[in-house]
Design brief:
CATH superfamily: Amino acid/polyamine transporter I
Number of helices: 22
Oligomer: single chain
């Protein structure tokens, strides 16, 4: 019988090491919000607005709708067996060992790539205050700080993420409150622009760039949602998961409406979409345009902490994924060792070393937005693979364990149908990525990762067989 107070896992026959359930409800709720408000919203929304205009609001709503069902599928699977520590566990159990291997390592790589994008974003935000500061040195300092924060205890990670997410929430709510006041007062910026809701439809209509512009907005918009599944990697360290996980997942639609739809409507009402600069954060630029440089510094701090929050989550999740893979024999055994504080320190250090690749990228390609677009496209493709594996696992679960589904306290609505609709949507997004030159290169390069994984899995299987 499983002891639900903590998940215990063997590392060697002589010793038992376990992840501790130190994350409380408030940690999980804020980690969930932090995951739903990614760097793509703050850093990438400038580009998505310039590509799609006001129709970008519809793009975010469509993606959010699809991902809510992915999260519901994940929630039902995790709660069907509390021995599942993350989605790589149920993928291995339901689909096969290869699925656990591919999902675990791909999710690890997803967060390393996303972490690089976050580090790129952090260095860009740091330029706002320190234009003379070397970007690659700033990125190295950032990675070092993240390593130190995560080496202490999981509770320190939870607290750090709680306050990072709180800063994001307060900032966006402030924007949503101040924006309508500026619209009602018909606030005029130094450039002569008057704040008005009519900006949403007067400058070329809702689809000013046509249907092609609307489709072009999906790439970075998908990246804005990466991390939404982060609550799935906290399952083994969550107190009372039966109550906490459903609560966190059910709140996702409301958060998407508030943090994406309302925030973008306010931005495009105060500053017309065609005035938004593609390679800068519109959250910062909004306050610069209305002549509030002090507020711009505050918002720059907010978007910097947002990127730090995402990178912090990435470092946390990669170390837990490596811990799980090592226990299954799919990663070096040293990654299954925990420190005295019950933290997988070896996995943390390895992931942070990989994050330093971001410093090299910034050094080789000085154009921050070019690096950001390349890295976010790779990340979005890999995350869609992980989300699809979650849906495939759910379909197998429904077929193999109908009794478990019947007694589930958290059933996914329209389960099988929505799984197929979501996977068709992900395939559609891949087609869109192939149509644009700046995203096509990343799409062509991504299969190399799966080739490396396939070769590694074959070698590992032959080694185990021998």
């Amino acid at each position: 019988m499983v002891d639900h107070s903590e998940i215990t896992t063997d590392v060697t026959p002589a010793s038992k090491e376990h992840l501790r359930r130190n994350l409380t409800n408030r940690h999980i709720q804020l980690i969930s919000i932090g995951g739903a408000i990614g760097t793509g919203l703050f850093m990438g929304s400038g580009k998505t607005i310039s590509l799609a205009g006001p129709s970008i609001i519809i793009v975010y709503m469509i993606i959010g709708f699809m991902l809510f069902f992915v999260m519901r599928a994940m929630g039902e699977l995790l709660l069907s067996n509390l021995e599942y520590k993350s989605f790589s566990d149920f993928a291995a159990d339901l689909i096969g060992p290869w699925a656990g291997f591919f999902t675990g390592w791909t999710y690890w790589f997803c967060w390393v790539v996303t972490g690089i994008a976050d580090v790129v974003a952090i260095t860009a935000y740091a330029q706002f205050w320190f234009p003379e500061l070397s970007q690659w040195i700033a990125s190295m300092l950032c990675v070092l700080l993240l390593l130190v924060l995560n080496l202490v205890t999981v509770k320190v990670f939870g607290e750090t993420e709680f306050w990072f997410a709180m800063i994001k929430i307060v900032a966006i709510i402030s924007l949503i409150v101040i924006g309508p006041v500026m619209i009602v007062m018909q606030f005029q910026s130094p450039s002569g622009t008057v704040a008005s809701l009519s900006h949403l439809w007067n400058n070329g209509g809702l689809f000013p760039k046509g249907i092609s512009g609307f489709f072009a907005g999906f790439q970075i918009a998908v990246f804005a949602f990466v991390g939404i599944e982060l609550v799935g990697t906290t399952a083994a360290e969550t107190k009372d998961p039966e109550k906490v996980l459903p609560r966190a997942i059910n709140a996702i639609p409301l958060r998407i409406i508030m943090f994406y739809v309302f925030a973008l409507m306010v931005i495009m009402s105060v500053t017309p979409w065609n005035s938004v600069v593609a390679d800068k954060s519109p959250f910062v630029e909004l306050f610069v345009l209305v002549g509030l440089p002090a507020a711009a510094s505050i918002i720059n701090f907010v978007v910097l902490t947002s990127a730090a929050s995402s990178a912090n989550s990435g470092v946390f999740s990669t170390s837990r994924i490596l811990f799980g893979l090592a226990q299954e024999g799919d990663a070096p055994k040293s990654f299954a060792n925990l420190s005295k504080r019950a933290v997988p320190a070896n996995g943390l250090i390895f992931s942070c070393l990989c994050l330093l690749c971001g410093s090299v990228l910034i050094f080789l390609i000085p154009n921050v937005m070019m690096v950001f677009t390349l890295v976010t496209t790779v990340s979005a493709i890999l995350f869609m693979f992980v989300w699809s594996i979650i849906l495939c696992s759910y379909l197998v679960y429904r077929k193999q364990h109908p009794a478990l589904h019947q007694k589930s306290i958290y059933k996914m609505p329209a389960g099988r149908l929505m799984c197929w609709i979501c996977m068709a949507f992900f395939a559609f997004v891949l087609v869109l990525l192939a149509l644009r030159e700046d995203t096509r290169q990343a799409l062509i390069a991504t299969p190399l990762w799966f080739m490396v994984l396939g070769l590694s899995y074959m070698l590992l299987r032959n080694k185990k067989a021998a």
